[in-house]
Structures are given as structure tokens and as C-alpha cells.
Design brief:
Structural class: mainly alpha
Strand content: under 5%
Largest sheet: none
Mean pLDDT: 95
């Protein structure tokens, strides 16, 4: 009877270790996917920053043109 109990304990232990090994692999795989996703988000952030800078430049140019136009009407 003692041998059966030890066999059951060994089987439970092996099952637990196998489950932890499997879940560890899954967690590592998810971590790698998250790292890849993080780098994609960073790249998109850089592209967005560049577009915002372009838009800010265009707005500044339009503001300067509007100021010059208003100044011509004020002087004239």
C-alpha cells in the first residue's frame, strides 16, 4: 500500500512539474510576442511623431501667411 501511495505522489509531482514546464514555455512565448509588439508600437510612435512635426510645420507656415496677409490689409 505504501508503494502505491509513493507512486501516486510521484505521478502528481511529475504532472505538476510537466505543467509548470509547459506553462513556462507558453509564458516565454507570450513574452517574446509582447516584445515584438512593443517594438512595432515604438516604430509607429516614431512615425506618428514625424507626422505631427510635419503638421506643426505646415500650421506654422499657414499662420505666417495669414499674419502677412492680415498685415497687408492693416497697412493698406
Amino acid at each position: 500500500m505504501v508503494g502505491v501511495a509513493w507512486a501516486a505522489i510521484a505521478l502528481l509531482g511529475a504532472t505538476l512539474l510537466g505543467t509548470l514546464w509547459y506553462l513556462g514555455g507558453r509564458i516565454d512565448a507570450l513574452g517574446a510576442r509582447l516584445d515584438a509588439l512593443g517594438s512595432r508600437v515604438d516604430a509607429l510612435g516614431a512615425r506618428l511623431d514625424a507626422r505631427i512635426d510635419q503638421l506643426a510645420t505646415r500650421i506654422d507656415q499657414l499662420a505666417n501667411r495669414l499674419d502677412a496677409h492680415l498685415e497687408r490689409h492693416r497697412a493698406g
